[in-house]
Specification:
Blueprint lengths: L11 H4 L2 E6 L2 E3 L7 H18 L4 E8 L2 E9 L1 E4 L10 E2 L4 H14 L32 H5 L22 H7 L17 H15 L3 H10 L11 H4 L23 H4 L2 E2 L1 H12 L3 E2 L2 E2 L3 H7 L13 E7 L2 E12 L2 E8 L4 E7 L4 H5 L2 H12 L2 E2 L14 H7 L1 E5 L2 E8 L2 E6 L6 E7 L2 E5 L5 E7 L8 E4 L6 E5 L17 E7 L2 E11 L2 E4 L2 E8 L2 E4 L4 E3 L6 E2 L2 E2 L1 E2 L1
Antiparallel strand pairs: 1-2, 3-4, 3-13, 6-7, 8-9, 10-11, 10-14, 11-12, 12-13, 15-16, 15-22, 16-17, 17-18, 18-19, 19-20, 20-21, 21-22, 23-24, 23-31, 24-25, 25-26, 26-27, 27-28, 28-29, 29-30
């Protein structure tokens, strides 16, 4: 199906106008006959099927064209069969999509001269400190820019207030506990997604403004955009009548309040998020007013550190027809909710899906619609960099040996093998391995299922860290875990008391079980090697996480390990 669309009316043809009546609980009535309205009807079917497949009780979506919402609709009920119908004004938690709004809140404070992106955060929090095995006083090198880019070296969870505790302590107590954590990597060394950096950044905004984070966000961002139903204040969203109930498989109830106020604590509606998506797609402008200065919008979306994470935003580089297209986005998931925010300034496109279970199908809502809309404007999607355009080289035997082994990353495990002079990368759970090409001794690539080239940069091991494969898709970066031909470890007899089975509880129930075992003279936790013992009982894994057996109960990633 094709239809003519010029640049300025890219999506308005898809809208077919705002209906005087209501189509279900939405504000768009699809018109009969072939055309863009068929795309919306098809997306409705995708949403309904996904809700049924993954038991998602509530969904709300918005589609934006050039600052105008052209589709707002709710699906399902706010709380199982007892709740009211979901509408564009139903509140949802957006979890980590909150990081996008927190980044803008920080940049607005920079705009007003309250903050500087590139000075140590100890200028604002003189008493703050954090532990590091790499350097003294790492806090004196951490900046707001590094916090927002997830490059300060922080782990993901805090000892007080995290994704696993059933109770919600104060935001202040949560932030204070960050000083008890250990950095995974040297400050500024590499990207690793972290809640802690964003909670620190949000706390600094609230501290410097004297308003607190939630009130600064309301006054400086939410109110100017007309997002009157949105809030980061638990007292407000907890008392809201039209609020979706989150759900998580295996749990009868999900905590309502998250202590992760800046990194994941914002509640909002599809109508309000339409305004926010339009503001981002218009490069910081809203209804004729430049809310965020253009140069600061560019800072947010500049990706100056490389990789695919800017300041509170991720990117996906695509090509439609012969036109490069950059999609900007941020997802969120946890505490019974999921969210997906996507925008494309090149065409003024914005899309948000809010859903009441962090299930895979929810994150797929809108994907087909966006692809078809971009294809209608620019042409069918094609690989940006076909593999045939890459000048691959054959790895030397020594290079292949150095790369071969098991790797760990964020939410993934993988293995690299050498066979017949070629390298192959297989992720756990995948039946077949992908060819791992090489264009230079430290530059590698694979081709994903959509034909896109995914690149890796190899960083050799140091005294304190194993080798690292930094991926152009940051969440797929890998740390070397172990491999063939490595010498055995020290196998200390004192380690025997740590060996055994442990569990981690989430919201008062067992969420995972893992094993501490000895292999070839090393300790392993859930298959991840403990490569450094900096003092008796304090270890660090191959991916930089602290494992502390000095406390009772012991901890891993600041989560309590309970003996089974």
């Amino acid at each position: 199906m094709t239809f003519p669309i010029d640049r300025r009316s890219f999506l308005t043809h898809a809208a077919a106008g705002v209906a005087a009546g209501m189509a279900g609980h939405g504000e768009l009535r699809a018109q009969s006959g072939a055309g863009p309205s068929d795309l919306l009807d098809a997306e409705r079917e995708v949403i309904r099927a996904g809700m049924a497949d993954d038991d998602i009780g509530a969904v709300a979506v918005c589609l934006v064209d050039r600052a105008e919402p052209v589709w707002l609709e709710g699906f399902g009920r706010t709380s199982g069969g007892d709740g009211g119908p979901v509408t564009p004004d139903t509140l949802f938690s957006i979890q980590s999509t909150s990081k996008s709004l927190t980044a803008v809140a920080v940049l607005l404070a920079v705009q007003e001269g309250l903050l500087d992106l590139d000075v140590p955060i100890t200028r604002y929090l003189p008493d703050f400190s954090v532990n590091s095995r790499f350097e003294q006083a790492p806090q004196d090198r951490i900046t707001l820019r590094l916090l927002l880019a997830n490059r300060a070296g922080f782990t993901h969870e805090a000892p007080v207030g995290n994704n696993y505790e059933p109770a919600s302590p104060s935001f202040e107590a949560h932030v204070r506990s960050i000083s008890r954590t250990w950095l995974r990597f040297p400050v500024g060394d590499r990207y690793r997604y972290s809640n802690l950096g964003y909670d620190l950044a949000g706390y600094i905004v609230g501290h410097q403004s004297g308003l607190g984070y939630a009130e600064w966000l309301r006054r400086k961002l939410l109110a100017p955009l007309g997002m009157t139903n949105s809030t980061a204040d638990p007292a407000i969203y907890a008392s809201a009548a039209d609020r979706a109930s989150g759900s998580h498989r295996g749990y009868p109830h999900v905590p309502l309040v998250t202590p992760l106020v800046a990194s994941g604590g914002i509640w909002t509606t599809a109508r309000d998020m339409a305004a926010y998506a339009a503001f981002l797609a218009a490069r910081g402008a809203w209804q004729g007013q430049q809310i965020l200065a253009g140069e600061l919008w560019s800072e947010m979306h500049g990706f100056g550190f490389g990789g695919d994470y800017g300041l509170g935003v991720m990117r996906s580089e695509r090509r439609h027809g012969t036109t490069p297209v950059r999609l900007l986005h941020h997802r969120g998931g946890g505490f019974g909710f999921g969210c997906n925010l996507v925008y494309c300034p090149e065409v003024g496109l914005g899309w948000v899906a809010l859903f009441s279970r962090p299930a895979l199908s929810g994150y797929r809502f809108g994907n087909g619609l966006i692809d078809r809309l971009l294809s209608s404007r620019f042409g069918p999607r094609a690989p940006r960099l076909p593999s045939a355009a890459l000048a691959a080289i054959r790895p030397l035997e020594s290079q292949a040996r150095a790369l071969a082994g098991r790797y760990v990353g964020r939410n993934l495990r993988a293995e690299i093998r050498a066979a017949d002079g070629q390298l192959h990368l297989r992720r756990d759970g995948e039946e077949t391995a992908a060819a791992l090409g090489m264009t230079a001794p430290d530059a590698l690539f694979t081709i994903d299922d959509e034909g896109e080239t995914v690149t890796y940069r190899h960083h050799p091991a140091t005294d304190l860290l194993p080798a690292h494969l930094e991926c152009s898709e940051g969440e797929s970066s890998l740390d070397f875990n172990d491999g063939p031909g490595e010498p055995p470890g020290p196998d200390k007899s004192a380690w025997e008391r740590y060996v055994g089975r442990y569990r981690i509880d989430q919201w008062g129930r067992s969420a995972m079980e893992l094993v501490v075992e000895r292999r070839r003279g090393h300790l392993y936790l859930d298959g991840v090697r403990l490569i450094v013992e900096t003092e008796p009982g304090l270890f660090f894994t191959s991916d930089g996480e602290a494992v502390d057996f000095r406390s009772s109960p012991p901890t891993w990633r600041n989560l309590r390990l309970r003996r089974v």
